[in-house]
Amino acid sequence: MRKLYFLAVLTLLFACKKGPETPADQVFLNAVIYTVDEANPKAEAVAVKDGMILAVGTSEEVQTYVGDATEVIDLQGKTMTPGLVESHAHLMGIGYNKLELDLMYVKTYDELVEKVAEAAAKAKPGDWVTGRGWHQDKWIEMPEKTVQGFPTHDALSAVTPDNPVYLAHASGHASFVNEKALELAGISNLKGERPKEVEGGEIILDPLGNPTGILAERASGLVSRLIPEETPERAAEALTLALKELNEKGITSFHDAGANQATIDLIQKFKDEGKLTVRQYVMLTGREPELLEAWYKKGPMIDTADHLLTVRSIKLNCDGALGSRGAWLLEDYSDRPGHRGHETLPMSVVSEVSEKAIPAGFQVCSHAIGDRANQEILDRYEAAFAKNPDAKNLRFRIEHAQHIHPDDIPRFGQMGVIAAMQAIHLSSDRPWAIDRLGEKRIIDGAYVWQKLMQSGAVVTNGTDAPVEPVDPIPSFYASVTRKTLQGLPDGGYEGDQKMTREQALKSYTLDGAYAEFEEDFKGSIQVGKVADFTVFDQNIMEIPEEEILKTKVAMTVLGGKIVYSMP
C-alpha cells in the first residue's frame, strides 16, 4: 500500500510540473556568440519569442526556455553574430548582374571579347548585349592598343557587327560600347568633328579624335538611355535572385543606394506577398528630382511594424570613381596631369536637397570618392545644418568617403556625418590607386578608417555590390588586414589604419543599424532586439587571418526564421 501511495504522489508531482513560464519559439544552443553588446560581449545561446530575443546566456541557462513546441537548433560550436548589415549596395544591380554578362572575373580584354561574342551569337540581330563588372586595372595584361589606360572598341566591334553592346564598368562610373552602339547614339563616324562635351562626363577619344568606345561618368547615358526598359517580369526575377544571394551571404539588412519608385513598389509587392527575406533601407535616387519632390510632400515611410521596408533617405551621386579617373580631386591625377575628375552633380543640388530634406525628415547620403567631392559635400551639409539649428540627430552620410583631405577628416566626427565605407575597395583598388593619387595622398587620406573613427565618426561597412561581390567575408578580411585577397603585402597597406576584429564586426552590424536609425531594434544580440543572426562555420574573430577567406556562412536567421542553411 505504501508503495502505491508513493507512486501516486510521484505521478502527481510530474503532472504538476510546469514548463517554462514563457517558452521560446526557438533556441539556438552551443554556439560561440559575439553579441556586439559591450555589457555582455560573448554568450553561448539565445532564445527567441515572436521573432525577438527573449534571453541570451549560457546553453544551460537558455535551455530553461525550451517548451514542448520550442524548436531547438544546436549550432555545434559554430560562430554566431548579429545579422550583417550591408550598408551600401545596389539591390536590383545584384539581381540583374545574374541575368546579364558577369564580367567581374574577366582577366584580359581578349577574354571579355570572347564572352561578348558568345552572347552575341545567341542573340537576334539588333538585340542589345549588356553586361557589367570589367575593370581594366585588374586585368593581368592589357591589349596592345590603349587610350588613357582603357581598351578601344575595335576587337569588340569586330565580333558584334549586328548587335549594340553596352558593358558597364565594375565601378558603375564608365561604360564600354561597340561601334553599333556608338552609331545608334550618334557619336560615331564624326568625319573629323569632335563630339560635344558632356557635362559631368567624358567621351574618351583616340589621338585622331575618334571615340574609343569608353564613356566616362554621365557620358554613359548617351548609350544607356537607348537600351529597352526592363519588363516587370524580368525585374521580379532579378529581385528574387538578389534576395537569394543576400540570404546565402548572411545579409539580413540591406541599404539600397539609390532606387526609383518602380523598385520601391516591387519591394513593397514582395513584402506584401511574404517574399521579402532581407530588411530593406531604401535611398531615393537623386537622379529624379520629381521623385524627391513627391516624397518631400508625403514624408518618409518608416516601417515600425515589421521593419522590413523603410524609405527615409536620399542618394546623391556627386563624383565618379578612381578607376575611371572620375573621382573629383583637389589636385591633378598623378597619372593624368591636367585632369581632376568630374563633378557629376552640381553642388548647388546638394545644398538644395539638404535644405529640403531636413525639415521633411529625410537623411541625405552623398556619393563622394575624391577629396574635392568630400570637401564640397561637407561644406554643403554644414551650411544646411546651420540653417536648421534646431534639427538634431540628422545622421547625414557620405557614401564611400574613399579619399579625404587631411583637414576634412575631423569634420566627419565634429558634424556627426557617417562615413559609409566599403573595406573591400582597399583590397581591390589600393594596388593601382597609388598611381592615381601618389604616395602622399594615399597615406594622408585614402581609406583612413582609424583616423575617421578617432574623429568620433561612425564608419559602416559593405561592398557596393555589384561593384564587388556582396560576400561580407572578403570585406571583413580587408578591414582587419588591409591586404589584397591574395594576401599582399605583408603587414597590409598603411597598416596603422586596420580595424580590430571587434571594430570590423561592429561596422557590419551595430554601426550599420545606426546608419539607418535602427540601433535600438537590431545590430546587437540583446534581449528585446530582433532575432537577426548570421552563423559562420569558423570563428572569424579568432582564427588566423589567412583562414578568414575560407570561412562560409552556415546559416542566416531573420526574425527567428532560418532563411538560409548551408547544404
Automatic annotation (TrEMBL):
Database matches in InterPro entries: Amidohydro_3, Metal-dep_hydrolase_composite, Metal_Hydrolase, YtcJ-like
CDD domains (UniProt xref): YtcJ_like
PROSITE patterns attached to this UniProt entry: PROKAR_LIPOPROTEIN
Amidohydrolase domain mapped to chain residues: 71-564
Pfam families given in the database record: Amidohydro_3 (PF07969)
Protein name: Amidohydrolase
Originating organism: Algoriphagus aestuariicola
